[in-house]
């Protein structure tokens, strides 16, 4: 993600969090490809993204756990923040923060753990080698009940497990896209229009 010049990446020393799997700005680090592939420990989890302007702001505000705890949230730092995506989609970031406030951290983390398990089911049973990014994006974006429903429907399709991987993947993609359409979500990362040629 590209920040305005005054928010450019500067290393943030001392930024550590007790819960690295849900970022202070509302991104689901537990479902981020960088975390899932072992390249990042999550928000404030150590050697991960230590140059985040939002993390620097958190430290300046006394180390708030989530931006929603700050009286001025949403502040000007969020202007344009969700217009394009980073390693994860930003489409549901505000919804996810609202959900955190409604259910609390532990239930939210339990939901993310279940989403991770359902993602593994998709990858192990329906990936043909070309759908990994789509399945990860769907697991990230779809609400848990929708994701469960898709896996249940896939499990009840007669003879689906015996089909070639390409056909299993196509069936899963069709169901995931239908679920995302019902939610008004796009199953792709939105690029920064300034960086597109």
Describe this structure in words.
There is one protein chain. The chain is an all-alpha fold and 197 residues long. The protein has seven helices and no strands. It has helices spanning 33-36, 53-60, 93-103, 105-126, 132-141, 144-156, 165-183. The longest helix has 22 residues, at 105-126. It is elongated and about 55 Å long. The protein starts with 32 loop residues before the first helix and ends in a 14-residue tail after the last helix.
Helix proportion of residues, in percent? 40-55%
Number of DSSP helices? 7
Q: Beta-strand level of the residues, as a percent range?
A: under 5%
Q: End-to-end span in angstroms?
A: 17 Å
H/E topology pattern: HHHHHHH
**Rg calc:** 18 Å
What coarse outline follows from CA principal-axis ratios? elongated
What low-confidence regions span 5 or more consecutive residues with pLDDT below 50? 1-11
Main sheet, how many strands, which sense, barrel?
A: none
Instruction: Let me know the average pLDDT.
Output: 87
Features:
44% helix; 7 helices; 197 residues; mainly alpha
Write the layout of secondary structure elements.
Elements: H1 33-36, H2 53-60, H3 93-103, H4 105-126, H5 132-141, H6 144-156, H7 165-183
